[in-house]
Amino acid sequence: KAAAEGEILDVFSRRLLNVSVGSSMLLLFGIRCCHYAGRLPGESHPPHAKLIMWIWWAVFAVGSVCPFAFPHWDGHPIPPLAVSSVWLLVLCIVETSFTHVLDKDVAIKPHHKEGIDEHTPLQGEGSLYTAGHQSS
Fold first, then answer.
1. End-to-end distance of the chain based on CA atoms, in angstroms?
2. Which end of the chain is more exposed for a tag (fewer CB within 10 A), N or C?
3. How far apart are alpha carbons 21 and 25 in whole angstroms?
């Protein structure tokens, strides 16, 4: 409402915006830790893939706490909304880039058994997409 009507936000509302975005990011990081911790990177992953995964974890962890440090401007609602939106977009692009790079080494490996297509995704520890879960 404040953004549409050009109203000035009070200090509490500005801080609440940053805390809300930061809390959401920390919750998402916590969910990822519960789901992927101990599985990514796995022991069977190549060393360079492990390094990329550890960098991904570090970037996402740091990115999750950054919204708490965003500046509080002079009360106009558009700058903090824009900064939060751009930050989330940057994290999405970074994560997509990491996934794209890892796809070559982790998600798809050739199979040498008869009857299995050589580009069939793995359904075990080696699969970035399933991370140990069987698809239905």
1. 44
2. C
3. 6
